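Problem 12. The chain below contains 222 residues. Write out its predicted structure in token notation.
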Amino acid sequence: MKQLKRRKFEKLYEPLEEELVAMARWVQATGARVLVLFEGRDTAGKGGAIQAVARPLNPRQCRTVALPRPSEREAGQWYFQRYVDHLPAAGEIVLFDRSWYNRAGVEKVMGFCSDEEYEEFFRSVPEFEKMLVRSGIQLVKYWFSITDDEQHARFVGRIQDPLKQWKLSPMDLESRRRWEEYTRAKETMLERTHIPEAPWWIVQAVDKKRARLNCIDHLLSQ
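Solution.
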């Protein structure tokens, strides 16, 4: 399938922008609390999708959260504590660019957590998410899926483009080398945290523009 061209994307995106604005008005009018998690491998297109969702919305109402590595103090807290600080209040939409699922992905693969912490995460996260939903938060979880070849091409593109080289880090390059380990970690994560109250939704993201449109269309349907 051919990649969607920019002009075609903008034409299809325009009516979705209007629907996003209508959704935001509904959220504000009803006091709803909307939380959307964007997960996926490096270069999967999460950031572009988040920008497409947020672009027509008031940044005071729609916030993007991309947390850095935990500080020494945060590392000594309950694992979910630093994420709780950023949950939506009434009338807000919060978009997480990566989330507590770091523990099931990068922390597991790179050895940043112990086996005990990893297993405790899987015991805790379904209860944590059920509690969020019971409290009235509308939680939507997206996994952006790309192929091995596509990730390789995107990494090469970043290396060769001076304007994108800032996106690369030694951690990114190491994650590229550990493709199979990340695949196993992803499959385990999806299997153990796909619950009726907060299911995972897979976004096919080899075509970034189509992925953005499909993600927004699905989000609006929720």
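Discussion. The first helix runs from residue 6 to 30. Students who got a different answer should revisit the alignment rule from Section 12.3.
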